[in-house]
Specification:
It contains 1 helix and 26 strands. By secondary structure, it is mainly β.
Length: 488
């Protein structure tokens, strides 16, 4: 196969602001965020790159917008009781235009246009009360209101005179949530946290209650052991619920995806500024949406592509397992330097409608993250810092393609689903910054070099329809950037 020469540098802007207003009997804080980004992923097609007559590729144009504003009002009734009310609004919009490109003419033909937008209004009110030095209780009630819009058009082929409207949906849904948590301290060394969390999805009247339990034992001034048990649940993507077929919503009554989780952890302070922490965990997933028509697949493997189609009928008959160990060594910032090393070994499997256990798509099996930096004081208020971040990950697993035709979906080889992996992911970033602190204001000039080794990490693979071979699409290579920040 040949390597796709992908040209696409992300462009983004963001603005954040926060205000904190102390009150006589409480506090009011306001936060806002605006984020814009876009990327054009274009394939450089030429004979030198190995392209031949009839080869097809895709150009992808993505534009994202995100807005968030939140208000938190806290009132303290007395030394033991306080009330917090949090209100927020978040809006996200993603637009994707995909064009089919044919070689050697390089003519662009519309293939897909997708617009997904969702606003979320959230409110939760929480009461905190301390009965005495041993008993502490908190509880809250809230609601999330989703305002969802999907508009997707598919251009099957130039021989089809009119585009196909996949969906044009506007729906509002709401999720009610509530929780109660009790903390009891048996002794100064032993603490219990227990509670229950519940969700109710008004769209299909699905309700679920989740008991949870945590225990922490402080063995000594330097070490502690913690244990956690609990049930958790998660909504399906709104696109799944809103899929329409023959005037009906076949996925409307899907339940939450659920999991039972257990964790055992150990924390040790080796030195005043050096900490070691490890956790082993196990997670059993159940009521996972799977596909009767594709019994080897599961929703656990979906959702990471540039464009994700959810035009599938699901049933809550799948399961899955995740288990592993995580180790962290952390050197807190002291004497001008810090570092953090985090590693994990893990495994993730799933069972589809056929009940056969397979590797999950995201079962990379291992990860290693190393972060470190050093800071020099050049002057009383002038600082120079150098920071390095390096990542090694086991990559995603592969669903092989056996065939593909113009204007039709790819045909996958599910008999070998997710058996093989892409090569490991490796990336190292370098950051150099100069920071000046003046009265009530800090200014920072920084220069970053992402992926300084110019490693070609595979983003995914594309099936070449003309030659029945795979072609790789790579993530961004070496990319320098700089900027200027002002902190008020």
């Amino acid at each position: 196969s040949i390597g796709l020469n992908i040209g696409g540098v992300p462009k983004y802007q963001d603005v954040t602001a926060k205000a904190n207003i102390p009150l006589k009997h409480g506090n009011l804080s306001i936060i806002g965020l605006i984020g814009l980004s876009k990327i054009n992923i274009k394939t450089e097609m030429s004979a030198e790159e190995g392209w031949i007559n009839g080869d097809l590729s895709e150009d992808i144009h993505m534009r994202n917008q995100q807005y968030f504003t939140g208000v938190n009002y806290m009132v303290r009734f007395n030394a033991n009781t306080r009330l917090e009310n949090r209100f927020s609004y978040q809006y996200f919009n993603s637009n994707i235009d995909m064009d089919r490109i044919s070689f050697p003419t390089l003519n662009a033909e519309p293939y897909l246009k997708s617009s997904i937008a969702e606003g979320r209004i959230s409110y939760i009110s929480t009461v905190y009360h301390r009965f005495n030095s041993k008993n502490f209780l908190q509880g809250g009630l809230g609601i999330d209101i989703y305002q969802t819009h999907f508009d997707e058009t598919y251009y099957a082929d130039t021989t089809v005179p009119d585009p196909i409207k996949l969906r044009n949906t506007d729906r509002n849904t709401a999720l009610l949530k509530g929780y109660l948590q009790w903390q009891y301290r048996f002794t100064d060394a032993l603490k219990l946290v227990s509670g229950v969390y519940s969700q109710f999805y008004l769209f299909n009247h699905n309700i679920w209650a989740e008991p949870r339990l945590g225990l922490k034992w402080t063995v000594s001034k330097r070490s502690s052991i913690n244990v956690g048990l609990g049930l958790h649940s998660q909504l399906q993507p709104r696109q799944v619920y809103f899929y329409e077929k023959n005037g009906t919503l076949p996925n409307k009554n899907l339940t939450f995806s659920k999991s039972g989780q257990a964790v055992l952890g150990y924390d040790l302070k080796i030195m005043p500024n050096l900490r070691f922490k490890t956790e082993i965990y196990y997670q059993y997933l159940f009521d996972i949406p799977v596909i009767e028509d594709i019994p080897q697949e599961s929703i656990l493997n979906m959702g990471d592509d540039y464009y994700n189609s959810w035009d599938i009928i699901f049933v809550n008959k799948g399961t899955g397992e995740n288990y592993g160990i995580e180790i962290t060594i952390e050197k807190f910032f002291h004497k001008g330097y810090y570092f953090l090393v985090t590693g994990s070994l893990y495994n993730a499997t799933y069972c589809g409608y056929d009940k056969v256990k397979r590797n999950a798509k995201f079962s990379g099996n291992y990860s290693l993250n190393v972060i470190g930096g050093y800071e020099w004081k050049l002057w009383k208020t002038l600082l120079l810092s150098i920071n390095v971040k390096s990542i090694v990950l086991g990559n995603k697993r592969i669903l092989p393609v056996t065939a593909s035709q113009r204007g039709t979906s790819q045909i996958f080889d599910y008999s070998h689903a997710y058996e093989k992996q892409y090569p490991l992911y490796f990336r190292t970033d370098l950051n150099i910054a100069v920071k000046l602190n003046v009265k009530k204001v800090a200014m920072e000039l920084f220069f970053e070099m992402e992926n300084i080794t110019n490693r070609k990490n595979i983003q995914g693979q594309v099936y070449n329809q003309s030659r029945a071979t795979y072609e790789y699409a790579y993530q961004t290579g070496f990319m320098p950037m700089g900027g200027f920040k002002i902190y008020f």
